[in-house]
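Purpose: get a first structural picture of the assembly so the mutagenesis plan has something to point at.
Setup: two entries, given in the order below. No constraints added.
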Amino acid sequence: MSNTAPLGLLVLSAVRHAASYLPVFDAHPDTVIRAIVEESDAPEWAHNDARILAERYHVPVLRDPDAALIRGDIDLVLVCSEPTRHARLATQALQAGKHVLVDKPMAVTLDECKMVAEVASRSSGCKFTVVHRLFGAPIQRARQAIDAGHLGLIRSGDVEFLSSGVFFGTSVERPEFVANPALSGGGELMNFMVYPVDYLHYLTGARVTEVFAEAGTFFFDAHKQFGVEDVGILSLRLEHDIIGSLTVGRIPFAPTPGTGASTLRLIGSHGHLTVDENRPQLDIWSTVTERRGRTIGGESAHGTIATEIGAFIRDICEDRAPLYGVRDAWATIAAIEAAYRSLVTGQPARVAALPAR
Amino acid sequence: MTLAIAIIGAGSIARDHVAAYARIPGVRVSHIVDTDAIRAQSLAAQAGNATWSTDAQSALAAPDVSAVDICTPSETHAALTIAAAERGKAIHVEKPAALSLADYDAMVAATGRHGVSLMVGQTARFQPVNREIAQEIAAGTIGRLRLLHLAWYAGDVWAGGWRAWQLDPARSGGHPLHNGIHALDLAVWLFGRAPTRVFTRGFRAFAPTMGIPDSFHMTVRFHDGSLALLEIAYALRQRGDTLRRILAVGEAGSLSHSTEDDPHLYSDGVHLPSPSIEDAIYHQLRHWVATLRGEETPIVTTAQVRHALAAALAAQESLETGRAVTVGEADNE
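Result (structure tokens, whole complex):
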């Protein structure tokens, strides 16, 4: 893609999803993984994670982010810590003049969003994006239908985004990452609500302006232990008086053979459409495997991150604005923040508006 | 012995009831009453030359009538039910049973006082998919139910256009009461628990001047914290289009169904109901008749209907105020 040297990648904390993101960078012709750095005062398990991945990719493990970030052979930083460190580490990388991809959620408070946004606006040469799932083929297909006018004006959207708890031990290597607020910043609304809110904004063009939330802790010991929700239902108002509804969280069995179910239904003035990120699906009935089906074209969740990383590298090389920027992440986290306020008051909460650019 | 039933009201639902009774052995529609004589006469002819009238009292007084099926606009349900009870008739009343809890309580009290039965036509319980979901929940397949998500979408508008009484909230009670009661009753039945808090948001799909939103969703919290998200939309563009989806999540598993997976007829201008939801009114009225004969135990209890009604009234208040509303009158299980 580029005639210049490959982009040097620094992994700034390598816990949680880093193991699934790094193969994409490793395989990409325009990036080279240079090193993994973890903060010296990070917990031992974080250093262990860094060490394991460093051995896998034959790169050094560093313990001084400041020193690592000033290296001239580092162009791009992947921030992949637990969520409560995302904003601070992303800010640090931007201030060092690096391009940044940060795992979701970008931040866990609105103050953190403001901080990242201010630094990003001063770092105009740096590309910045956050892990999202908007490149998933089903979402792109829906957006194309909407852009073609097939739905007319969208009036309502419903998203069901549910992860299967039977995979709790394998899809999230440590349940505390989503249940311990000191690491996660909240419960499953903080963990998962970014995706459905992103979908609704991306597909409708409208921001969420008001949220009413109900949540419960029904299914998992980790969530009960830390007193956070494992599932929630939400009523949204979006601009243009579009109404939205969400069912979000982790349940014992999401209604899909895969690890999680993500479906949405949009009703427009001139048509409606349904999206299922696990369909079309090939049904499997076999004595050889316990798998009951496979998504035709691959699971959206897996394909979308590779597409996003590829697009972000191209954004950097060709000086394009990423599909999803700091203000998109901020607006989504503002909706999540309103959801948590609604849970406290038992009433709908206005979403804090972003300041004008 | 043939059961003679008087139907009060000769609108579109009454027509469906007449068609259902024709399939139930030992049942005869003996009277049709409507304030519109032509409509009463027409439906009476379809019912096999039933006696028609514009005066409900004449049918209620008929000695050969042992049961009354009330299919009139909602604001008349209470008075007609009480009048039928006073005549000693068994009563089936269309949903919503009443426009207020006070009216509903008076209906239940009157039927109790006169020793007659009262069944409210909560049709969703009789849709095949919902009956089977209830059976699986009762069998313990998914453990204790904690989360329910219903999406009921249709391309629809009420018969009568701008004359439709359903568009007048004073007559229908608003859409959360008129149709939301179906979803709320189903939720109350499946959970077996009382709603405590409701929030509603809606929109008017086809005309901003509609008296009620034709599309809305409700969040429902039950007394043990369990949750339901209930969506009802008439906003699909094509009349007759249907999308119905249900997800029930328990502590040990989930049940889900979508009409997208049902076999369908594809033919110009014809929309048949999905097999998973078809024939509910027949099943509902067949069950009512069976309860009157002592052959089946009533599955629609007046206590559960009251919980659903209280929640629907709270949902309408939420729609009007934009606030979450505590279901004040709801009793715990």
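The interface with chain A takes residues 146-147, 149, 151, 153, 197, 199-203, 205, 215-217, 219, 221, 225-229, 231, 233, 235-237, 241, 243, 245, 247, 249-254, 256, 260, 322-324 of chain B (CB under 8 Å).
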